[in-house]
Amino acid sequence: MKGIIHSRFAVGRAALTVMALALAVLVLLPIAWLMISAIRPQHDILSAPYSFPETLTIQNFVDLYNIPGFGQSLRNSFFVGLATTICTAVAALPVGYLLSRYHFRGQRLLRLVALMGYLFAPAVLALPYFQFLSFLGLVDSLVGIVFAHIAFCLPFSIALSELIFRSVPLSIEEVAMLDGNGILKRILFIVAPAARYQLAALLLLVFTISWKEFFFAFLISSGFQTQTLPVMLASLYGGESINWHLVCALSTVLILPSLLLLFVGRIRQVVPLIGGESRG
Amino acid sequence: MFKRECTVLGIIASVLFAIFYGVPLIQMFIGSFLSNAELGASGHFSGARNYVLAWRDPAYGQAFLASTAFTLSAVFLQIVLAFGAALLTRQSFRFVGILRWILIIPYFLPSVVVVVAWKFFSDPFVGILPKMAGWIGLAIPDLRGAESALPAMIIVATYEAFPFTYVVLLARMMQIPDSLYEVTELYGANPVEKFLTVTWPQVRLAVLSLTLLRILITWLKFDVPWLVYAGNAPSPWGDTLGVAIYRTAFQNLRQGKAYAASVSILCVLLTLFITWYVLVQVRRRIGFRDPSSPRTELIELIR
Predict the structure, then answer these.
(1) 3-state DSSP assignment of residue A219
(2) CA distance A85 to chain B (A)
(3) pLDDT for A47-93, tens place per residue?
(4) A127, B32, B85, B134: which sits with the fewest CB atoms below 10 Å from its CB?
(5) pLDDT score recorded for residue B69
(6) Rounded to whole angstroms, how far apart are CA atoms B171 and B167?
(7) Which of A64, A36, A230, A234 is nearest to B127 (CA)?
(8) CA distance B297 to chain A (A)
(9) Which one has a higher pLDDT value, A43 or A89?
């Protein structure tokens, strides 16, 4: 027997089941309702919202695809996500490695500064970043969004990659060190392959964070050419009359990478590793 | 060779932090003392005028209240819900793995989607929540109205952030050794007594840390308040501090004032952060840790 509820009692077990079910339904229902509505005909959503969905259709996604700007937004989102992932990996992994492998003066300060990244709420950083980007001529460009997303992802990427590299024993590196291999080679060919699942989860997480980020994308982009999918969704649903069938379809598209991350995480048992990076 | 590698990496790290955090911080600090009405225009030194303007602005007073009410309610709800969920899923029963997995899903969803989902879910015409509430005789207020602005923000923020709190608390609870509970069973403790003597003393520091961290993150949240109204707040409670700074900087184009407000707010956050850090350090120094044995004396006290 474990914990505080006596599950050997039938009453206790029934109560446990009811509570567990209620919790699961409460969490799942809003999202499930949205995703189910995404594959129902537009007519059904409005006129018979509570009936059992009899006809299913992909018409909503076709309509969504035909909205001017959707294809561009999708491409923008993918570009920003991939570029952010690659740049964050290049910037954060060496620093995480440094923190995990060496003892040096200023190490605690570096760690503290990385932690303090949490302090810089996007709302406070918005204006300095905007000015910095307009100084560089990067306002209303995808590169500008990538820049902001990297700043957003760096603190937790460094913290997590330090944890990940710590889990790799130093001994497997020592042979390579004796052979005189440099730090880049050791990271790329020895440490990274040894922790590939955790690193893959971290990179997928960075991609997801960038994919779902709204504030900086909203701030920096100003038009179809540079908007990402979350910004497009916000403008779709911000109008006077809401086209729920399009909103549901676009939301479903936005949810998919997150679900992918969760499935991979469940299979590989790496999700518990994921810490608190959500801000905004 | 190792020394050289170390130096190179250290320099890379410093440059990164300087570009991404140092430059904006310095810019913010300098900008808060410059007077310039237009975005992008270069200003001249104006002393503490921006600070006076920001501190006297009633909009910021209201925003402070709105942010604080929003943060305290949302963080309280998150912690309570996450605590309950962690207590529940700490037990082992069938499908508990699936349940734990389901409970962290909202954390990975875009804020925009969470907002849209709750609006759709609670819509009086197409949503299922009012219908379900009707079955058990409850009336759900329309979340689109101005008067339900704050509740709508709190619900969405709680839904979005509680998985994080939940994961941390669950991890902490799973670390409690079973032997502690076995000791209390020798005393014939009931579930409530077990909670008070073992579970709570073990997790309270985690709860404290989490509360501070969540307050730090929620206080300046922009996207949830902004998206709940789709940008045009029908009620002053929608203008939290994050939104207020955004309006000053990008709608009223008063960048000096926005910087002054940002610096003031950062000072508050920094104080909170330092408090938390010092607490952690002091705790380590004086050896104050989570207790290693159940506080069985409490059982006597309760009875």
Answers:
(1) helix
(2) 16
(3) 777 777 777 888 888 888 888 889 999 999 999 999 999 999 998 88
(4) B134
(5) 92
(6) 6
(7) A36
(8) 18
(9) A89
Q: Is B277 on the interface with A (CB under 8 A)?
A: yes
Strand partners, B45: B34
> Residue B41's pLDDT is what?
55
Residue A257, CB-side half-sphere exposure with 13 Å CA sphere:
22
Test B222 with A234 for CB contact under 8 angstroms. no
| Torsion angles phi and psi, residue B125, rounded to 5 | -100, -40
At residue B177, φ and ψ (nearest 5 deg) are -70, 145
Q: What is the mean pLDDT of residues A154-164?
A: 85
Instruction: Give start and end residues of each alpha helix (H) in chain A.
Output: 10-38, 42-47, 59-66, 70-101, 107-116, 122-136, 142-166, 171-178, 183-186, 192-194, 196-212, 215-220, 229-237, 244-268
More confident site: B129 or A280: B129
Cα–Cα distance, B225 to B216 (Å, whole number): 16
Residue A280: the pLDDT is 38
**How many Cβ contacts (< 8 angstroms) between chains A and B?**
270
Contact, A50 vs A40, CB < 8 A?
no
The first and second tokens of residue A212, run together, are 């779902």
The single residue listed with the structure tokens 């206790």 is A12
- Considering only CB atoms, A280 lies closest to which of B16, B221, B255, namely B221
pTM of the model: 0.83
Of A4, A20, A45, the CB nearest to B126: A45
pLDDT (tens digit per residue) in B55-96: 888 888 888 998 999 999 999 999 999 999 998 888 877 778
Residue whose C-alpha is closest to residue B108's, from A234, A262, A154, A216: A262
- Per-residue pLDDT, averaged over B223-229, amounts to 82
3-state class of B231 per DSSP? Answer: coil
Most confident of A176-185, A264-273, B181-190: B181-190
Which class for B184: exposed (0-12), middle (13-18), buried (19 or more C-beta within 10 A)?
buried
Mutate to test the interface with A, among B3, B7, B15, B21 (most CBs of A within 10 A): B21
Beta-carbon contacts of A83 under 8 Å, excluding residues fewer than 6 positions away, are A142, A143, A146
- C-alpha to C-alpha distance for A153 and A206, rounded to whole angstroms: 6
Q: Which residues of A touch B121 (CB under 8 A)?
A: 29-30, 33-34
